[in-house]
Amino acid sequence: MTRPALTAEWKRIECLCEIAQESRQHKHPPPELVSRLEQLQVEVLAARAQGSWNPVCGPGLSHLALDILACAAASEVSYVAAYAYSTLGADPATQAPSKRTIQALLSLDSEDIAAFNAELSQDAPLRARGLVVVERGGMAAIVTAGRTLRQGLFGETDPLSPPGTVRVNRQADWGDLIVPDQCRWTLREFSAFVRHRRTVEREWGAPRRGGPIALFSGPSGTGKTLAAAVLATELGFPLYRIDLGQLVSKYIGETEKNLNSLFDAVDGSDTILLFDESDALFGRRGEVKDARDRYANMEVSHLLARIENQHCPCILTTNLRSSIDAAFLRRFQIVVDFPLPEPTERERMWRCHIPAHAPLAPDIDIAMLARYARLTGASIQNAALHAAHMAAAGNRPIAMALLVQGIWRELAKDGARHTLSDIGPLAAYLKEANDADNRPARAALAG
């Protein structure tokens, strides 16, 4: 089932097909058909203005590019369009339209042909993002829905995803990311590297380099993976997390082979690779004491050489920057440090993660929580959700005691011994959480 916001798109393509069939028979289309097309044109433009295509392909595509997407996908959404394509010269195996068919449907004149061909060029977003696939050449070339378009429209798993990767489907924007201004500016610089690399390299004559490559370093839970999702959403690129379990092999030469397959699949494409907790692949090369050390160093050296020439945005995350081989650091275009959040940032996080429509007790003091609970963003989210679930279980509002209880649960996760003095005056609420008046939730859980 496709997205309801795009219904007008498919109805418009059906209408265009009917008009094209009338024209093939040298007939003028009925006035009611023309009137219907005009109404659908208005609906399509209104829906596009509301971002109807954004969840599928991201922002920034021209109306002509969106028209091409609608034509490419229509045969898989509409039986009417599929049948009409078969009479208008579509590929008999896939019922996908040719470039000539799309031009006829859109009534493109000679001035529009150059823009049309540019939208379907190898480096243009439609093909670089995997939205469409162009088979063969010339005007008879068949334009089919690509893996990214099919994923966005039908929610299909991505059978053509790069080997050894898992698709990250999280949509996020800059408002979701609470980091220091310096961190945010550096992330935007990486976005600029990706957006304008073709201009700098092809039009301005700069030497072609691999990547661009970014290193995100900082403690766990400070927003590194979220930042990667924000960049992917803004750029409209698919984000793939590297599954080290599929890439790293104990057999000699297999890891290098797997890495080559991965990089060959994405080279030159608008795809972001996320090497989460990258220390395992990009760690320091050590002293050679036996054959195992020698081959481990060979794997790192091979990866170093390959990523240097890889033309695909790559993001590496690490909890410990010093663990990354110095030879890699020189090849990163951007290095972003994600520090532990300050009290003002933690306060924003608490306000963001406490459910917006939850009933709140009057004793909640967000500023106090932010000041005395030195948690990361991920831990704050976990603590807020813990309090929300305990409040729901006890059929009561979220109170300060439940939030502090969630904080204490998060502190216990790191394995270190914490004392009540670590949370200052919040400790009084922790004692309250264990008092009799807080037992309704426990009774509900038990029963």
Notes on the protein architecture:
- The protein is an alpha/beta fold and 447 residues long.
- The protein is 53% helix and 8% strand.
- The strands form two sheets. A six-stranded mixed sheet has the order 3-5-6-7-4-8. Strands 1-2 form a two-stranded antiparallel sheet.
- A hairpin with a 6-residue loop joins β1 and β2.
- The chain has three domains: 4-154, no CATH class; 166-337, Rossmann fold; 343-446, Helicase, Ruva Protein, domain 3, CATH 1.10.8.
- The two termini are 41 Å apart.
List the helices and strands and how they pair.
Layout: H1 7-24, H2 31-49, H3 54-57, H4 63-77, H5 79-87, H6 99-106, H7 110-119, H8 125-128, E1 132-135, E2 142-145, H9 147-154, E3 165-168, H10 181-203, E4 213-217, H11 224-235, E5 239-242, H12 244-247, H13 254-266, E6 272-275, H14 279-282, H15 291-308, E7 314-318, H16 326-329, E8 334-337, H17 343-353, H18 366-372, H19 377-393, H20 400-412, H21 427-433, H22 440-446
Parallel strand pairs: 4-7, 4-8, 5-6, 6-7
Antiparallel strand pairs: 1-2, 3-5
Helix pairs in contact: 1-2, 1-4, 1-5, 4-5, 10-11, 13-15, 17-18, 17-19, 19-20, 19-22, 20-21
